[in-house]
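Final report, results section. Input specification for complex C-07:
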Amino acid sequence: MIEVRFHGRGGQGAVTAAEILAKAAFEDGKYCQAFPFFGVERRGAPVMAFTRIDDQPIRRRYQIYNPDYVLVLDDGLLKVVDVFSGLKEGGKLIINTKNSIEKTEGADIHKVDATGIALDILGVPIVNTILLGAFAGVTGAVSIESIIKIINETFSGKIGEKNAKAATLAYNTAKKIDK
Amino acid sequence: MVTKVMSANQAIAEAVKLANPEVIPVYPITPQTTISEYLAKYVADGDLDSEYIMVESEHSAISASLGASGTGVRVFTATSSQGLALMHEISFAAAGLRLPVVMADANRALSAPLSIWNDQQDSISERDAGWIQIYAEDGQEALDSILMAYRISEDKNVLLPSMVCIDGFILTHTVDPVNIPAKEDVNKFLPKYKPDHAYLDTKKPMSIGTFTDPSYYMDARYDMELAMERSQEIIAKAHTEFSEIFGRDYDFVEKYRSEDADVIIVAMGSICSTIKDVVDELRDAGEKVGLVRVRVFRPFPKTQIYEALKGASKIGVIDKNVCFSIGGVLATEIRSNTGLDVSGFIVGLGGRDIKPSDIKEIMEKTKNPTKQTQWIGLKKEEH
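Structure output:
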């Protein structure tokens, strides 16, 4: 089973990203589950969301305490939240940042300038789908084709197209770095 | 028939769309709200031909449900926590008037302290209202249970309302794959509701819900008791026919690796999924443990529970509710109805996350009971 934790701020689309990832994994023929950190979401406040992916039906229904992967939508959260909490040995952390990460806690860190890509392609600093593209490229745990399909189902018309383009760019960039 | 990734709230809305009630009076409340929203959208988009009534409170939602059901049409409503508590007065009336209303309750803690998070105190506190109560383990079962609830409630031998309970957030806000049955299959299982008992009709005026003096009231209540007893047979029949048409099996209680178990845990709702994972893990380690999940809580399936538990040497019952100075309600009812010795555990009140380590602690404490009721997951040791 693959367990993913998203860190974002209220309004950045972390919950939507967790659901898109689950639906994309299902599209790939896997079982899936996604849920927000249950509670009161306030714009700008730190939020979490979770996705589980497996070849078997998923039963467990508690929060993810030891993720395989962590996605951070906002690097400002590094000062506020322990995004490394419980990350598995050798686990990957994919983060939207242009800065160097000082404390890595032994995690395998992948930086993405998602805000840059978002401003270029979407014209607004919304990075959730871009992080998903990077996730597909870095981990291979989900196909970019399924991510694109679900992005287009989630956001209609031009917005879907632009998000798909941005996610693909992040995917290709991540693949290149990995090679 | 199509499988889609969706929340249990959306699964319930899909079930309602398939059941096609004529009237839907609802008032939004966390974590039920998205059920109201999905249904409003279906109606606005023309995907569901129902009268959607925006009411000003839950008391009005259940009152309008009662009034609509009294005219002999299919009705759906949904609520949660404080909303269900506000419905309390009319809930008894709906059952007493023998109206087959179907309601979804997104299980949430009751105030105070104020909490929007999950436990089952809200619906457990309505256990004496005369409603059939079903606790779903996941979104699929939530959808399926709504369809079965209409079949059971509308049966002329039952005519009692039904409440389908789903754990707030843990199910209402979690998405996973749910199979949506084909409309023609649903029509076979659940034909249009045609009451053959008395209902309000302007062409044949009559009254329902009239004042009843002591020479009638008690007999009317006894009739409800008989209906609740008869519902066992109707529920069993609904399970069988549902399985024949849709291929998914349901029972009053679900036995998971409990047949030869020395230690059995009993619980209701979504927590059972996590318990199944723990049972598998401990079975792999050679421990003979199992789970008995109570799915239908009213009518209380005492015989089925006794049969499922009688072979175990130790039994632990998990409750997400508390009856102060007594313990958990499920544990208490199992104790008094089966005569079996069970240890009670109170967990997850107000949404406290229940981890596999908590389940293992409960299993250990079930093996070595020290007191009748123990609270698991408190920040401090018990006082």
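The radius of gyration of chain B is 20 Å. Chain B touches chain A through 23 residues (CB under 8 Å). This concludes the modelling results for the funded period.
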